[in-house]
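Teaching soon. Got one?

===
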Amino acid sequence: MNPPTVCEHRMSHHTLLDKLLHGDIHIGGEEIGVFPRSGNRWMKMPKSGLSAMMLRSFIALYAHDLEEYYGEDFGEDYKGMECIYGDTLVFVLADIDGSESTSVPSKIRKKIKKSGKWRRDRLRHQWGYINPLNRVHGFMILKDVTNKNQKEKTYTIDTVASSYFSEKKGVGSDLISIAKIFSQKAGAKHLVLEVANEYSACGFPDSEEESEEESEEESEEESEEESEESEEESEVSKKTMWYPDESSLDIICDELWKKCMRKNNQDIPYYNLSLDYIENGLYAYFHSEMMSEDGELWSGTHENIVKDEDEPEETEYGGFWYQKGRRSQRGLMGFYEKFGFVEDPEVFKKWCCFYEIPYPTMRISF
């Protein structure tokens, strides 16, 4: 028997995830997926009371309001439901019941009353449902990182964030619960994550130092790969899918990234994740990117070998910058431990799921 073609592999992957997420409704079966398609059946999360859905589903639900507010294309004219998936998925927790009059907390309403027009508009944009993206109180990027070195099915929580501009409680807990529910239904053996912080990347060269020549070469390679996409799959996706253009994608990335903002004890804003990092995850989701296009397991990243376990170097796992980053996130690691996660250095060193920055890695196995 001949191995499946790239197109057959991708469509099989899409079909499996579509059934898992939304239920097998194409053959008349009951909707048994994690997120049924019926608008009145969104999964209500127990702690936050928010509705869980895929990011595309949210955008489809509020496409008209988004286009009215931002003046950009958010796919209002596309009637097809989400059915094309890659290895990256984006889940959101959204308030689909709240009204604009109740969306702004009382302490912010008091500030609005005392402020001039520019600040009033800014506060409403950050907090009010007049900006439809403020209905998203938290989001999570989940990625399949199963590879030739770690062949047991493994998902990673690539990003998880509750909005700074929200007073909803339990958002982070509900997002972690979704990750566990989905991973188990998908047959994963492991769910892993990196504990992001502002210190562990210190000591590494800035990625922005990459030469323009290298960037141009990568862009040319990506263009060639995109041009090789099968005509059959392209035609299917064009009929059923909305793809954000540069302007609408920039808006979505910027608004979700701003939700990740936190303030230190001196009230100075900071971000543990860069805008580029969020953009990469959202682009992979919207464009249904696969880690491997040939139907084989992804080759993975690389092993991160610690030369001397007793005296790791500053930029190695267990070294100075790892330790400083770990201390800064002891509370967050304790939060993950409540869900059954444990720190496992072998995930970073041997599983080839992550790159070279020694963020503390945690794992839960099913």
Remarks:
- DSSP finds 14 helices and ten strands in the chain.
